[in-house]
Amino acid sequence: MTAKIAYDDIEIGTELPAQTFPVTRAMLVQYAGASGDFNPIHWNEKFAKEVGLPDVIAHGMFTMAEAIRVVTDWAGDPGAVVEYGVRFTKPVVVPNDDQGATVEVSAKVAAKLDDNTVRVDLVATSAGQKVLGMSRAVVRLA
């Protein structure tokens, strides 16, 4: 597969379609099983609060993975992402209810680079707080 977006058709400032991702406790348990990260702050409310957290929090890598979906969905090929990095700024707090939490992600093309690549800057928030900082991806377009 290759990216479906043509490099020549993109301008700096192009906004990618924003998305909202649900995060539930069940999803965190599934992610723990897949990743092998069984830290109790991600599933045990009592433990999370004992160590000073407001509640169970989502895995940082889970949050990071959800955010990049905005880019991979836009590009049409996950393999088009050649570089991706973030700083974890705030945790995604996931209450034990039917709603869970949400992560809202927007992104825009910040720079056109060499070799048909662009830098995409992402903004990810949850409960009104920025949860990822310096979130950037380099994407190779068609």
Task: Please provide a written account of the structure.
This protein is of the alpha+beta class and 142 residues long. It is built from 3 helices and 5 strands. It has helices spanning 25-35, 45-50, 60-75, and strands at 15-23, 81-88, 101-112, 117-126, 129-140. Strands 1-3-4-5-2 form a 5-stranded antiparallel sheet. A hairpin with a 2-residue loop joins strand 4 and strand 5 (129-140). The radius of gyration is 16 Å and the shape is elongated. The mean pLDDT is 97.
Topology:
Blueprint: E1 15-23, H1 25-35, H2 45-50, H3 60-75, E2 81-88, E3 101-112, E4 117-126, E5 129-140
Antiparallel strand pairs: 1-3, 2-5, 3-4, 4-5
Quick structural gist:
This protein is α+β, with helices and mostly antiparallel strands. It has helices at residues 25-35, 45-50, 60-75; strands spanning 15-23, 81-88, 101-112, 117-126, 129-140.
